Each structure stands twice: as structure tokens, then as C-alpha cells.
């Protein structure tokens, strides 16, 4: 029972740390006003990497051994652990899915940054791709995500227009 108690203490420390990571990931992002759409992709790539690392750690043999010992001891901490494990898996899947969808827009980011306002021929294809993401993505089709993405696309267009005016 002493070993189980120590292992429960370790699990509770992990639970607190993981909850902190999950809470931080759900907080509103503070970003500069002039960020372009490539920053959205970078944000989700970073988030995917973080959650995948966390998942790898949770699925490590060391953690699995501790969990199996606590299961054998019928520990009460496992309910919280399983809930957090599920939440981390959801967050990792969301980030992975969002990266996959945002990569479909990546081909537009370079031309959009360099385009003159007269030659915005990429905009219809870009908007069609954004529409496809909105219609098919299980995670990215929220008003919050779409607003963030469209704001960054608009920022990129405004920056391209400013550069065009300053050069002309």
C-alpha cells in the first residue's frame, strides 16, 4: 500500500501538470495584428508537436507500468487519469487534423504575400480551399478558427497592398 500511495502521488503530480497544459492550450491566443496565414499553420504545428510529445510520454512503458500497478490496486486516481488521457488524445488529434487541412492552404501563402493587388488571381482558389476546410474539417470548422484564419489572410493581403503602394 505504501508503494501504491507513492505512485498515486506521482500520478496526481502528472495530472496537475497535464491539466495545466490543457488549460493553457485552451486560452485565447494573443497575436500581433499583422500576422499572415502561415503563422496559423505554425501555431498548429507547434501545438501538434507538444501534444504528440505528451502522448508519447503517456504511452511510454514506464507510465504504463505505473498505471497497471494502480489498476491492480484499484486506485481512485485512475478515473481522472483516463479522462485526461482522453482529452490529450482529442487535443492531439485536433492539432494533427488542423495541420493537415492548413497544409492545403500552404501553396497560397507565398504567392499571396508577393502578389500585387491587381494580380490577386489566387484569391478565388484560396477561398474555395478555405470553404472546403470549413465544410469537411471535424475540428477547424468553428467560427473562432475560421475568423482567425480569414483575419490572417486579410492581413497578408493588406501587407501586399501596402508593399505595392510603397513600391509604385
From TrEMBL:
A matching Pfam family: DHC_N1
Residue ranges of domain Dynein heavy chain tail in the record: 4-166
GO MF annotation list: dynein intermediate chain binding; dynein light intermediate chain binding
GO terms of biological process kind: microtubule-based movement
Cellular component, GO, one term: axonemal dynein complex
Protein name: DYH8 protein
